Automatic annotation (TrEMBL):
<keyword id="KW-0808">Transferase</keyword>
<keyword id="KW-0328">Glycosyltransferase</keyword>
<feature type="domain" description="Glycosyltransferase subfamily 4-like N-terminal">
    <location>
        <begin position="14"/>
        <end position="169"/>
    </location>
</feature>
<dbReference type="InterPro" id="IPR028098">
    <property type="entry name" value="Glyco_trans_4-like_N"/>
</dbReference>
<dbReference type="Pfam" id="PF13439">
    <property type="entry name" value="Glyco_transf_4"/>
</dbReference>
<protein>
    <submittedName>
        <fullName>Glycosyltransferase</fullName>
    </submittedName>
</protein>
<dbReference type="Pfam" id="PF13692">
    <property type="entry name" value="Glyco_trans_1_4"/>
</dbReference>
């Protein structure tokens, strides 16, 4: 049994936080002693943390001010491996590991396309973290764990990081028995009592997700009986609703907020669309594939091309091309639902907990896993 530590800022509703929780539970399933340390603490996902995972909250007022407390914790508690996630957390973890003498056991991970993600958060300290992170990535002894080959290549292409400074590990997105699970009932009325085809998308209402392009594409569909549901919250809610009104589709577009069971909603839909401008390894796309529902995705950097095997599993279209997106959606809606269902499930199976956790253990422990 190995003693492992995962370092996060908090357990907010983001995809990285959700994935680190899944990884922690999967590492416990693989026979390890796992602690999840939160630099600040709290967050809506905290209630869903596997009770077998030990939780520590430093309660720092800001992530950037957590270095001394984290250094003390690392000095007092020896772990076989330490894993930090998200760029600003990585920088804090590297500083604390250097102060505590545990840098040899620290691994950091990038969850998104670095060259795009660095422009998203306007916070000054986060911007500073993105400036210094690439230099630190060259200096630390262990390579940065990236969630996809595209994320790794982006880090090399757009920063001073070298190929030897990066490695990859798959996200543990799905339960091992996902094929045998029966999806729950959807909550949305359009999916419970369908009067026509329904398209579903899931994600933050933010520019990264490209929902403005999706709504434009939706308005261009020839079938005016189709409906669109976008599950998620974010700053663009009002703008997206105004766009739907301007395009004359407001009565067929709904933004109901977060859903507690996105798999149930996607499983009941006729098509899932990932319209993102950039990603790391989009977990929502993997989850959609696991339901067997037909999907369409943008060829965004990075992840969809890898997950969909270059378009073999499902259509890939250019980013910010609503006409191409509309054509791909219309094609999927006109195709028998079960065509290529097996291929979709096979593509999702790579991201089962048991499979993915082995790639993480190899990255974290190397020869220690034997």
């Amino acid at each position: 049994m190995k003693k492992l530590l995962i370092i996060l800022h908090d357990l907010s509703a983001g995809g990285a936080e959700k994935m680190m929780m899944r990884l922690a539970a999967a590492l416990v399933d693989a026979g390890n002693d796992v602690t999840l340390l939160l630099l600040t603490g709290g967050g809506p996902n905290a209630a869903h943390l596997d009770p077998r995972v030990k939780k520590v909250e430093l309660r720092s007022p800001r992530t950037s001010r957590a270095v001394p407390a984290l250094a003390r914790f690392l000095r007092a508690n020896r772990f076989d491996a330490q894993l930090a996630a998200l760029t600003h957390v990585n920088v804090v973890a590297i500083a604390a590991a250097m102060l505590s003498g545990t840098l040899a056991r620290l691994h950091v991970s990038e969850r998104n396309a670095f060259s795009h993600d660095k422009h998203v958060n306007p916070d000054f300290m986060v911007r500073v973290a993105y400036l210094v992170a690439p230099l630190l990535y060259r200096l630390i002894p262990n390579p940065v764990i990236c969630v996809s080959r595209g994320v790794a290549q982006d880090l090399v292409d757009t920063t001073i990081a070298r190929h030897r400074d990066v490695t990859t590990a798959d996200n543990p997105v799905l339960d091992d028995n996902f094929r045998e699970k029966t999806p729950g009932l959807p909550s949305h009325r359009w999916l419970l009592e369908k009067s026509g085809a329904v398209i579903v998308a899931v994600g933050r209402l933010a520019p990264q997700k490209g929902f403005d392009t999706l709504i434009t594409a939706f308005a261009a569909l020839p079938d005016k009986g189709v409906r669109l549901i976008i599950f998620g919250e974010g700053a663009l809610r009002v703008r997206l609703l105004e766009q739907a009104l301007t395009l004359g589709v407001a009565d067929r577009v709904d933004l109901p907020g977060y859903t507690h069971d996105p798999l149930a909603e996607v499983a009941a839909a006729d098509c899932f669309v990932l319209s993102s401008r950039f990603e790391g390894s989009p977990n929502a796309l993997v989850e959609a594939l696991s339901t067997g529902t037909p999907v369409v995705a943008t060829r965004c950097p990075h992840g969809p091309q890898d997950i969909l095997i270059g378009g073999v599993v499902a259509p890939l279209v250019a980013v910010d091309d609503p006409i191409a997106l509309a054509q791909a959606i219309a094609q999927q809606l006109a195709t028998p639902r079960n065509l290529q269902r097996h291929e979709r499930l096979e593509a999702a199976a790579r991201f089962k907990n048991a499979s993915a956790v082995q790639t993480y253990l190899a990255a974290l422990l190397g020869s220690q896993t034997s």
